[in-house]
Amino acid sequence: MGALGVVVGGATGGRGGGDGGGAAGHFPTAGAVAFPSADVRGRVVVLDPGHNGGNGAAAAQIARLVDAGGFQKECDTVGASTDDGYPEHAFTFDVANRAAALLRARGVTVVLTRTDDAGIGPCVDVRGRAAAEAHADLAVSIHADGGPPEGSGFHVIAPAHAPGAVNPGIVEPSARLAVRLRDTFAAATAEPPADYLRSQNGVVERSDLGGLNLSSAPKVFIECANMRNQADAARVTDPAWRQRAAEGIAAGILHFLAER
Ligand SMILES: [Zn+2]
């Protein structure tokens, strides 16, 4: 809603159709994404980089069951990886830190659910409650999917009403956050919405994720790409693409904050 302010991202035009076009040729070319000029100093955001580098060697620890909002689920999982072995935990940690830097530059207080990429967890219940713990305005959990190799694209997951969810009041604002993030992420990266899901518009609602069910602040997950897809794998392993992904995430968050 606020006037458009700073524009970040240097890739303004000149990027060929080879990157980001994919199956959806109508999709816009990646470029600069607008940050709103609203004063967001002092607002608090939780960024939750999915998985962790130590999970793979701690099978028993991450398999223990924790509350996921009315049912139990594994503490955490190892996550996906590209066929060449670039792990999701490294991707999410890098993008989260890039997005955190962009938000902190605007005066936002950013709390990360993990501050290194060599630990175990935290469990999904801790991740879910992190926004309440930090008295945050919102939280975004950053992931990359391990979908079917022939499928590509990104999607945002918003909370559906779940029996054990701690705050049904987050469903509506989280849906708005999801749309914001979808639009800014698409604009920043030119990544098309995932083509391998029932929903083709880049937003899905789920009630099976403890990380969403246990949040008392608006929260979404973003699955930035499908790591098992060759074209998406080339994107997630490119630091310049990860920077654009971070810009897209930060812009969506800033727009949401500016409207509240
Ligand atoms: Zn994940």
UniProtKB/TrEMBL annotation:
Gene3D superfamilies named in the record? Zn-dependent exopeptidases (3.40.630.40)
Q: Give any GO molecular function from the UniProt entry.
A: N-acetylmuramoyl-L-alanine amidase activity
UniProt-listed Pfam families: Amidase_3
Keywords, in A-Z order: Hydrolase
**Which Gene Ontology BP annotations are present?**
peptidoglycan catabolic process
Return the protein name: N-acetylmuramoyl-L-alanine amidase
Which part of the chain is the MurNAc-LAA domain? Answer: 128-254
Q: Source organism lineage?
A: Bacteria, Bacillati, Actinomycetota, Actinomycetes, Frankiales
Query: Transmembrane segments in this chain: where?
Result: none
Q: Which organism is it from?
A: Frankia nepalensis
InterPro entries according to UniProt: MurNAc-LAA_cat (IPR002508), N-acetylmuramoyl_amidase_3 (IPR050695)
Q: What are the annotated GO cellular component locations?
A: outer membrane-bounded periplasmic space
Does Nuclease appear among the keywords? no
Ion transport is among the record's keywords: no
